[in-house]
User: Which sequence fits this backbone?
């Protein structure tokens, strides 16, 4: 079974009488009259991060990954809880110092505050982060409209190359190695864009499992399809180099996830204001495709105007 | 290192500028102007529950253990999140059905609603429960006053015997076996007492680590001591039988924790109203001792009016 199946088959009904759970399909809980937004995510060693050799970097990554769920929906995170399961070798004084230093740095960078959590003994290292924000408005999933433009912030794929380097699946020169590993550990969140998003995005999600996988999740309860243009999908100059050298291919690198960029759709009339706002904030923004009628099949068009067959849509959480 | 040391040495400072964290010393986050109360707890197989042979019972126990943190502070839990880490053998369809059935039953019993969570792959089974309630008032820790009476609800120790039976450390007849195992899996929370507590308790905590351990936590930032009378500490008739048979001793059985009864202190003038309220709600209540001046050493007095030397104060979360 995969995660979505578990939620649909066993947990959706449990939350059926509770409209604030958003059918467990939105990655957050939203209580409008309490202006309350909460997300909960668990990160396991060997699944969500390779190991704990660099506790300071792992902590930064998981904090950002967690608050990204709120930021992509137009909500500034304000508080967070961290619950860590570990043992004597993972929760050493040295590691705890590094964890606490990273938390302080992330708190400053993203204006968030530690509120509590738990520390428990386990021979398997994992963390659960609960992020809390206050807003009486959020951008929901499944609110795309036919003919909407599809946008994505920043670049995709850098993080996945960083992971491959760390896993020793790719060897690169020291400059590129440093670049991609840094991108893997430090997702570049766009906190300054968050509140603006509310004024133009019809629907949004953060890219954690891969562009295609998350785009399909974004509209999974709607009868809609999409058309994406591969050449418009933003990548860094450094990824372009690897593609030119045939070390990787573009379609695969944008489908690995872990990017934490914001994917959203907007009515075409918003195009100018989106460009203007993003320019003024220094946020790279790319129009990568269109939302289409359900009668058309979803498709990705390559540089030569040919349809691409999608083999691997992205990361699937399997059990 | 143990848990309190980790929090004090590495995390208290991280949350120092955030008054709502209550110095990470209260088991909950409380934001008065938002009327928001949140607790986060993680439960690991082999530490917080023995195994997953009875998923339905384990889930009930951890949900109750989590909402107990709010109930003991005068707050009704309203929402909860469950984040489970497991694998193919733990998250089978059969087990997921049992989990979902138990969640529905607990929701009905305690008027709580599932709001979200996460399901991730891990070979070590664990759950993190985030409980949320709304209240502009809570009962804090460390607000005891000299000469306060010390009260506890229900009976202590039943759960710890249930654990020993499950661990095959004690063998009992089938009737007692059933009784104690039931007490282990189904902590008896006093939801109806919660709101009343606000009107008479000066300070409160739920008993998870053991009576003495939790009493000391309750006043750990105050210069106070306590005097407890062993004979007043409430136990069930069934535990009394085991004590009479010298299978266990009272002091040890009340120090094992996992009781989820409410321990609180109150000004002596509240004595009559407490008795009256608890009687009308059908909640067993026992006055077990006094809060004393710091110049006196904390003490426990046995049936023969002698001081007891405390060997094991309760469960300590060690790393």
Assistant:
């Amino acid at each position: 079974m995969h995660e979505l199946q578990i939620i649909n088959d066993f947990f959706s009904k449990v939350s059926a009488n509770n409209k604030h759970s958003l059918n467990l399909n939105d990655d957050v809980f939203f209580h409008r009259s309490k202006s309350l937004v909460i997300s909960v995510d668990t990160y396991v060693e060997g699944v969500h991060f390779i190991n704990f050799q660099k506790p300071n970097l792992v902590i930064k990554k998981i904090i950002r990954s967690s608050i990204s769920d709120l930021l992509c929906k137009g909500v500034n995170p304000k508080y967070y809880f961290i619950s860590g399961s570990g043992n004597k070798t993972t929760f050493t004084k040295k590691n705890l110092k590094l964890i606490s230093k990273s938390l302080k740095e992330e708190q400053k960078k993203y204006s968030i505050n530690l509120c509590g959590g738990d520390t428990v003994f386990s021979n398997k290292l994992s963390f659960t982060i609960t992020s809390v924000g206050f807003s009486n408005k959020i951008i929901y999933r499944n609110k795309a409209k036919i003919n909407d433009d599809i946008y994505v912030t920043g670049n995709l794929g850098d993080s996945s190359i960083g992971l491959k380097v760390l896993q020793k699946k790719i060897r690169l020169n020291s400059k590129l190695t440093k670049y991609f590993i840094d991108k893997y550990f430090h997702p570049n969140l766009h906190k300054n864009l968050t509140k603006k998003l509310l004024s133009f995005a019809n629907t949004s999600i953060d890219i954690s499992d891969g562009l295609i996988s998350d785009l399909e999740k974004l509209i999974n309860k709607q009868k809609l399809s999409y058309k994406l243009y591969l050449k418009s999908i933003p990548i860094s100059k450094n990824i372009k180099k690897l593609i030119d050298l045939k070390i990787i291919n573009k379609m695969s690198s944008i489908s690995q996830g872990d990017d934490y960029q914001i994917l959203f759709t907007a009515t075409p009339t918003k195009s100018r204001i989106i460009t203007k706002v993003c320019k003024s904030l220094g946020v790279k923004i790319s129009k990568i495709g269109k939302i289409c009628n359900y009668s058309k099949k979803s498709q990705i068009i390559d540089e030569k105007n040919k349809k691409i067959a999608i083999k691997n849509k992205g990361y699937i959480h399997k059990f």
About this structure: Chain B touches chain A through 68 residues (CB under 8 Å). The first strand of chain B starts at residue 29 and ends at 31. The radius of gyration of chain B is 19 Å.
